[in-house]
Amino acid sequence: MAGSKRSKLKKALSPPFGKTPEPEQTMDDDALMDDLMNQLDSRNKTVQSESAAVLTEIKINKVADTPPPAASPPSQKQDSKSRHRARMERKAAAIVEQQAPSNPEQDEQLQREAAEEERAIRRICDEHGLEMFEINPDGHCLFSAIADQLALLHIIPAKNATYANARAAAAAYMLAHPNDFMPFLPSEGGEDGVGSTSDTGVMSSAAFERYCATMRDTGAWGGEPEIMALCSAYNITINVVQGGARSIVPHKPLKSPGDGGKVAWISYHRRMYGLGEHYNSLRPRPTFSETVKSVFAIGSPQR
């Protein structure tokens, strides 16, 4: 089962057929491991278990394909990255070991929920003239989806519409407005984590700075705080389309009631790809005339 999940991940993270991959899109097992390791600390149990299963399979395959190393001198030490990897690999193996056997009835229920969720989101898309633009499920999906919207709204150049820039903008806004975010963020290691909260029960300044650095520099999953930070940083409304009773959740800037008349649309999926939470970008659907022009442009001979 892990093999199919790994293949699904690597397929989703690969460039479309016929397109030359850019450096950022190339993903070997090492890069995939780095991204998956970032998900082992996710509070979403499904994300944890899926990532752990793929990590464990990669580790097993590497051990099987690698000849035994020569003996190292006793004084030789691992670098910090190697030690970190070893710890995370042990954690992944422990998570996999704790997982209960697959439940066919539960799997079928999850598939039904995923299909129902997709129908609900596509219904909203039809009502608002939108179409889904799928974002890679690589841990950066929220930031990539909003970056795509910022480019569509001509707020940033297309070449700057990357998850890295969106992460940096969210972290910078949060650091500049700590009082708007610290009371609502989860503490490190839970509410009783050492040094995670101040005497008032609010996340400490040091922990908040670490949280922002993690959001800026790693593949940690973003959520509600980061959406609020980005709509405030760019002074726009971000509409999140999802399944359930509340199908459209608008997010407006914290400091300004106005949104400049610009609205970004993204979709939130709880079941997509079987990897837990995921975000996609919702782009305006091309008009009939635009479609016709596109068809003729493709068919026109080169001059």
From TrEMBL:
Q: What name is this protein filed under?
A: Cysteine proteinase
Name the domain of life this protein comes from: Eukaryota
Q: Which organism is it from?
A: Daedalea quercina L-15889
GO BP annotations of the record are:
protein deubiquitination
Ranges annotated as biased composition (Basic residues): 1-11
Alphabetized GO MF terms: cysteine-type deubiquitinase activity
Q: Which residues form the OTU domain?
A: 130-285
For region Disordered, the annotated ranges are: 1-114
Please name one Pfam family that this protein belongs to. Answer: OTU
